[in-house]
Structures are given as C-alpha cells and as structure tokens.
Amino acid sequence: MTATAAPTRIKTALQEKFEKEVLPKVKEKFGITNPMALPRLEKVVINTGNAESRVLTLALSVLGGRAADSPNLVLAGASIAILPPLFIYILGQRFFVESSTSSGVKG
Asked: Where in the chain are the domains?
C-alpha cells in the first residue's frame, strides 16, 4: 500500500496577511493562548450579485477573467456591449447637442 501525500495548499496574499498581522493582534488583545480558539480564514466569497443585472464594466471583467487566454472573445463581448448605448446616442444626438448648448452660461 502506498502512502499518498496530502495536497499542499497555496496561501493567498489575504491569508498570509491574516496570519501575520491579524492573528497576533487578536491573540494580544483578547489574551488567547489556545490556537484552536483563534478565528480561521477558510474561504473568501466575492458576491457580484445577479448575473443578469451586472454593470457593463463588471461583466466585461468577469468575461476577461474567464476567457483570459482568448482576447478575441473579450473584444467581441466589449463590441457587443457597447452597441446599445451607441445606438441610443446616435438616435438622440440632436437632443444631447440641444441640451448641452442651451445649458451654457450666458454672460
């Protein structure tokens, strides 16, 4: 029977900072000597909310993270995402120009 080694876990920068800076301060402040009584950092979850209601920049960054090896896919997503605001601006350009010229300071 062969013994298998336990998988090594890579520590993130947040985990290292937690262990080096936060835990000693907690030990000192509360006088904890038992290491089992100390808080642990097991998992960090970043909630981006509902996938359908993401802001354009957040959705593109998520797409960039998932498709980091194919920049063409990210460029295609950015191109498709910019089309609706561009069409709205083209169709309502006259109103944008009128409102910006009429709101000028008269002197």
From this structure: 13-42, 54-102
